[in-house]
Design brief:
With about 475 residues, the protein is an alpha/beta fold. About 35% of the residues lie in helices and about 20% in strands. The strands form four sheets. Strands 1, 2, 3, 4, 5, 6, 19 and 20 form an eight-stranded mixed beta sheet that branches.
Length: about 475
């Protein structure tokens, strides 16, 4: 066995997925630090390397990628069920984007070393899986664990149920490889991947009645129109934020809060007669929602326990099935680790979300705070973790934590300047670009400011009611 090769750098970043790339990009921009990046995949981009073929972003491309280089083409989708809204990059586009960032930005800086196909053994050692070459690292400043969220994708997900021999079963990745028409499709999972699978099948012309959708929990969804990054959507994007605060300020209870959020167009649900218990922050357009509502055979009998050749056993009953049915696993949770730890802990940085739904913005922001501030307590105050949502009531905790961060940022002039210049923060740019004569926009902002104090007070009250 060859002797270990010794390396040294200011930062060791574990993971070259979206979070690791966004963090490295900001460090390269704002410091003279040297970086070693280690990743187990063959190319940068993390889970995008093994994403299903028809995956796209759920939010506009303008909110994704690294801070220094645009991913979005700056255009709206001209057709399809996202028509009229900001373009959604495909998985292939995202993967190519991250490879380009590595090849044409990070590596040419002369301050980044990148090691693919490598497994980290400790904070100061890793090994290349193909060659067995072992490396030791002296980290002069900090180790950055950009893998904490443990993003899971269907291709490498082990279902939480058993599948018997003889069952036609596949992860969602296998759908485009089908060569014969099955009798029907059984989609297992009610989250983003299940939504994508159902929409893809419908887009291919599959009849809605040929789809059985096993949905253990219905989900509250976000209207994608309220997430647009361009000025012409000011009324829906910033107006949507104002509507959230207004609903939170007026709510008499938790159920009333969600009724108000739905009435304001902030939250959507597939079946108006079924009250969701899940919230993962998935977005849909109104046209996508109408398509999903065409699927009438939605099974609400809890989680799948096992799939046998002739039946599907669920928590609260069973369904018949057969060899002509294709069972499509969409049960992987996008985030495999919901636990929270301080982002700054001595010589370790653990990027997590500091703004709702925005892991790459969060990584870039955390890197800026690392570069611009010295005191660890202040860094953690500016980078309070916004918990990732799972249950419906997590919306309340998420809103409280995100608003507290926003307040802390507003007290720091340096942060304000950074946010305005950040490519990943379209909302701040929208707010700062309001002209004196734009009275309608100013009225929207006034609504937001007027409702925010009462909203925060009421959400704190409601949070105490969560079991």
């Amino acid at each position: 066995m060859s002797h270990p090769i010794h390396l040294d750098a200011d930062y060791l970043i574990i993971g070259a997925g979206a979070v690791g790339m966004a963090f490295a990009d900001t460090l390269i921009t704002e410091t003279d630090a040297t970086i070693i990046m280690v990743d187990r995949m063959a190319k940068p981009g993390g889970h995008w390397n093994i994403a299903y073929p028809f995956v796209t972003l759920h939010q506009p491309s303008a909110y994704y990628g690294v801070n220094s280089v645009e991913l979005s083409k700056g255009r709206r989708d001209p057709s399809g069920w996202n028509q009229g809204l900001g373009d959604l990059a495909s998985g292939t586009e995202v993967l190519a984007y991250f490879e380009d960032i590595m090849r044409h930005r990070l590596l040419p800086s002369g301050r980044v070393q990148y090691f693919a196909m490598s497994d980290v053994q400790s904070d100061d050692a890793f090994v290349n899986r193909l060659t067995g070459q072992r490396y030791t690292v002296t980290v002069r400043r900090k180790t950055v664990d950009a893998t904490w969220l443990k993003t899971s994708v269907p291709a490498n997900h082990k279902p939480g149920y058993t599948v018997a021999e003889g069952v036609h079963f596949m992860p969602v990745n296998g759908l485009p490889a089908l060569t014969e028409q099955p009798e029907g499709y059984v989609v297992v999972g009610g989250g983003k991947t299940g939504i994508d699978a159902c929409l893809w099948l419908l887009a291919q012309g599959v009849e809605p009645d040929h789809i059985r959708w096993i949905m253990p929990r219905d989900a509250w969804l976000l209207d994608r129109q309220n997430t647009q990054a361009t000025d012409e959507f000011f009324g829906s994007t910033v107006g949507g934020i104002a509507a959230q605060y207004e609903a939170a300020a007026a709510a008499t209870g938790i159920e009333d809060l969600f009724d108000r959020l739905e009435a304001a167009g902030v939250l959507l649900r597939i079946d108006p007669n079924v009250r969701p218990k899940m919230f993962h922050g998935a977005t849909v357009s109104q046209m996508e929602l109408q398509q999903l509502r065409r699927i009438r055979n939605i099974v609400r009998m809890g989680r799948v326990q096992r799939i046998e050749p002739s039946r599907i056993v669920l928590e609260h009953g069973e369904l018949p099935t057969g060899p002509g049915q294709v069972h499509v696993d969409c049960s992987a949770s996008a985030i495999g680790n919901m636990s929270v730890r301080p982002i700054f802990e001595g010589r370790r940085i653990t990027p997590q979300t500091v703004r709702s739904y925005q892991p790459v913005f969060s990584a870039a922001f955390i890197a800026h705070v690392e570069a611009a501030y010295q005191d660890e307590a202040q860094k953690n105050k500016l980078c309070g973790v916004v918990p990732l949502p799972n249950h419906d009531t997590d919306w309340i905790r998420m809103m409280l934590a995100g608003s507290l961060n926003q307040y802390h940022w507003s007290q720091e002039p340096d942060i304000g300047k950074w946010l305005v210049q950040s490519r990943l923060d379209a909302v701040t740019r929208m707010l700062k670009s309001i002209q004196p004569h734009e009275t309608e926009k100013k009225a929207v902002v006034a609504r937001l400011h007027q409702a925010a104090p009462a909203a925060m007070s009421n959400l704190q009250r409601l949070a105490k009611q969560i079991a």
